[in-house]
Amino acid sequence: MKMEAIRIACLLVGYLLGLFQTAFVYGKARGIDIREHGSGNSGTTNALRVLGTKAGLLVFAGDCLKCMAAVWLVRLTFGRAYPEIRYLLCLYAATGAILGHNFPFYMSFKGGKGIAATAGLLLSFHPYFVAVGAVLFFGSFLTTHYVSVGSLLLYIGFLIQTLYLGQTGFFGLPPKTLYELYGLALFLTGMALWRHRENIGRLFKGTERKTYLFRKKE
Fold first, then answer.
1. pTM greater than 0.90
2. What is the rounded CA–CA span in Å between residue 38 and residue 90?
3. Where are the domains of the chain?
4. DSSP letter assigned to residue 114
5. What is the pLDDT of residues 94-140, one digit of tens each?
6. For residue 142, what are the CA distances in angstroms to 24, 72, 180, 192?
7. Residues whose CB falls within 8 Å of the CB of residue 109, separated by 6 or more in sequence, listed in order
């Protein structure tokens, strides 16, 4: 199989797993369409605000696990066959899962914002990313109660870590492939910024809504 086809296969594996919309399924089980409530997003934050803490945690777990499953599946298959580029292939799988979550074709390409799925990327990519991601997200969220701030810092931290570890030779990739890895990390970060563009605007205006783990509604 040509390497281009392998990259596409990893993307497709991730996209198909990412299509499982945990918030939508959970909402339907509770008799509502989550897209018709709150922000209209099919993601963790909206589930937390509309359905409460238990729902938010379950949705987070589901969306996180589907990305982890995509990375693990690719690591066990293509990663073993091509160990020299396993990090790149795993990132392709995670990118596909996040795209599937954000843009599910059967929901008119309107899903969530991909942060819970990104947590799955950090948890399955390498342990180095977990501690920094947790500190950035929870440190900012628990201080400000703005999910958007934690989400954006999570991605910025991921991008900086990827660039730093890549430059130190951690991934063991040749320059051309390493730049491809950087490109995927930059793409994911850019997509997160774009998906949060309205949140960023509200943050500057001081009108962004705060979220509390243990309070269903403000």
1. yes
2. 33
3. 3-205
4. S
5. 999 999 999 999 999 999 999 999 999 999 998 889 999 999 999 99
6. 26, 30, 34, 20
7. 103
